[in-house]
Write a structure and sequence with these properties.
- The chain is mostly helical.
- The chain has 10 helices and no strands.
């Protein structure tokens, strides 16, 4: 574990103590999926595994604790505060650095943006974002297979992201939840990339 000050057993023990069983299983799946995607796209597999393992480390913190950590330590766009379900992302990056000694900027950024994403994400950020959505332990198999097929097409990373954002926007609208404008901006950006590649 060259990217952390702790070894894998210590990380897994911490996650077991601080996550629900289902979230722990999801984190293992995300780490393994991230490693596979890193291999596919010739990125650092060890870094991807660490990012996947820690991406949800603050997921089971209470809303009050998440807000308390953000207020005391982090700058978060007001748009992100519309939905408490995404607040664990910046806090997870904070915990990864503070408690596990992660200093690598790519790992921290990938954890930070694995829920909402951002325009012009790096390839590394994209694979962590996608691994979270398609890991095999807790995610829908049909959806996973669809995304994996898209990844094998030209401009596959961006087109897989576009598919994910379509699903996210539909889901939020169906549940009558507020949609962060960043999500709309990223969707439009990815749609423009698709239109350019289709032209």
């Amino acid at each position: 574990m060259i990217y952390t000050k702790t070894n894998e057993k210590e990380i897994l023990d911490w996650l077991k103590q601080n996550l629900s069983e289902n979230r722990f299983i999801h984190s293992i799946g995300t780490a393994n999926c991230a490693k596979e995607l890193a291999r596919k796209f010739k990125l650092d597999e060890e870094k991807a595994y660490i990012a996947g393992l820690l991406h949800d480390c603050a997921k089971c913190f209470s809303n009050e604790k998440l807000k308390e950590i953000i207020d005391a330590n982090l700058e978060v766009n007001p748009c992100e505060m519309l939905n408490y379900k995404t607040l664990h992302a910046p806090v997870s990056a904070f915990i990864a650095k503070k408690d596990f000694g992660v200093e690598d900027k790519e790992i921290l950024s990938a954890i930070r943006w694995h829920t909402l994403g951002r325009i012009e994400m790096s390839e590394f950020e994209k694979i962590i974002f996608l691994a979270d959505k398609i890991e095999p332990n807790t995610r829908d198999e049909e959806y996973r297979n669809e995304i994996l097929e898209i990844l094998n097409t030209p401009n596959g990373l961006n087109m897989a992201l576009l598919r994910c954002y379509k699903e996210t926007i539909k889901s939020l609208a169906k549940r009558e939840l507020k949609i962060c404008m960043n999500t709309i901006d990223i969707y439009n950006y990815l749609l423009d990339l698709k239109n350019v590649s289709d032209a």
